Amino acid sequence: MLRFHFTSEDLTRVRVATEPHALWEIAVSLHRLQTREGRWAYAPWFHTARASLRRAGLERTVKTFLLPLFPRASYFPDFLTPPEGTQGLDAGLEAVLAAPHERVVSEVDALTRAVGAPAWVHRLTERDMREQLVDALRAYHRAVIAPHEEHIQERLHTERARYAHTLFHTGTDGLLAGLGPTIHWRPPVLEIDPYPDHRDVHLAGRGLLLIPSHFCWHAPIALADPGLPPVLLHPLHHRPATPPDTGSPPLHALLGPTRAAILRASATGSTTTEAARRAGVTPTTASHHTGVLRDAGLITSHRHANTVLHTLTPLGAALLDRKSRQDG
Length: 328
Hints:
Radius of gyration: 21 Å
Distance between the termini: 54 Å
Number of strands: 11
Strand content: 5-15%
Shape: globular
Mean pLDDT: 87
Order of helices and strands: EHEHHHHHHHEEEEEEHEHHEEH
Largest sheet: 4 strands, mixed
Structural class: alpha/beta
Strand order of the largest sheet: 3-4-1-5
């Protein structure tokens, strides 16, 4: 069990990552390749990832170089998922290269003790070996994550909208209580159970950064070193979105006043009832219009508990932005 101990100050310093963390997504996508657990949820990605790695000539690199550094359900070095990863892949990889020698030595030793890593991992203390690692991580990202970035962004946007909605209505308590079935908020302690080891992290005013992750499945993950800025990587609640219906009506037929109002409401995330209120129609009518917008690929709808939250897709955001500029 992992337990985060909050003070009153920590409750005011709970943050949510505004962008996907490139290095964490690499790490947990590599975990997906190591197990069949949750594979049904990632079946299309898994199929294309295998083919992409084969075409890029990366199968051996992944098997012999990357997987030993990112063992699933076990320790892997914290310097491989630096906080700079929320600023994009390049910033994260620069931080991997710049990791202090002493820290790399300590964390590589811990990896060896935990899983019996191959002897070559100790060469990660050398700059040229870390440059090879960075090149491999970049090539892996380009092959199997970059092609899906728009979909990942869409899902994370939905999750952030859900967080904002929950925070507005129920505060930080409600946010922490709704993070997932293995995360339990028992004020002032956030418990993650099950977890590979038993650990207590006292936040002591540092707050907690929540990082919703596309490739994280079922089990949340935290940094191993309690002295580092606290983060909690956790899985998204909803299932991967299904592709829009190929029989969708054309876009120009969608933007009557009611659908335009619902589309605008979805920009910040709205429930069906809220969208109905915004458009001045009944929830039943709003539900019909959200269905049309969803089939056209302009919004996504995800159920959480008894609520359905509607948010924009990249296409919907682009259409709304274009219409706003035309109206202006």
